[in-house]
Amino acid sequence: MSMHIANGRWVVWLSLLGAMLLQIMPLPDLVEAWRPDWLLLVIIYWAMALPHRYNILSAWILGVMLDILLGAHLGIRALSISIVVYVVVLHFQRLRNFPMWQQSMMIASLICLHHLVVFWIQFVVSTVTFDETLFLPAISSLIIWPWVFWMLRRLRRIYKVR
User: What is the pTM of this model?
Assistant: First the structure.
């Protein structure tokens, strides 16, 4: 195994760790509702770029880790992120060929799906009420996606991640 392939794996896992840290970082209440789903954006990118390596199992593991870090019911975000990554892996060739604006719209709809699944499971498990701020992270992720895509693609090319 050559050294650059092993280093490429570290780049992916470090980017996922950075996204996890951004996801759990405390923010002021005013900004908290608009927090992009950093972990979901990064795992979507890697599932689109390398679907044979980073797929549903990776999403499940990261979702369980996020549930543990957030102190949520175990498996809620793991299931939701896995569903989103399943859709991405199923249609990765189409998603890659979309123009950036259309790709951003698809990412926003996938993030809406994520939040709806999390809300639905929390509604079944405990008492939660529907709030219109549920979809604000989708809007901020829509705006942030081109930058995340550009940065991760650049990292992938610099470190020859395969």
Answer: 0.93
SS (H, E, C) the chain: CCHHHHHHHHHHHHHHHHHHHHHHCCCCHHHHCCCCCHHHHHHHHHHHHCCCCCCHHHHHHHHHHHHHHHCCCCCHHHHHHHHHHHHHHHCHHHHHHCCHHHHHHHHHHHHHHHHHHHHHHHHHHCCCCCCHHHHHHHHHHHHHHHHHHHHHHHHHHHCCCC
The pLDDT tens digits of the residues spanning 63-118 come to 999 999 999 999 999 999 999 999 999 999 999 999 999 999 999 999 999 999 99
Rounded to whole angstroms, how far apart are CA atoms 92 and 96? 6
- Which amino acid type is present at position 79? L
Q: What phi-psi label fits residue 64: left (phi over 0), alpha (psi between -120 and 50 degrees) or beta?
A: alpha
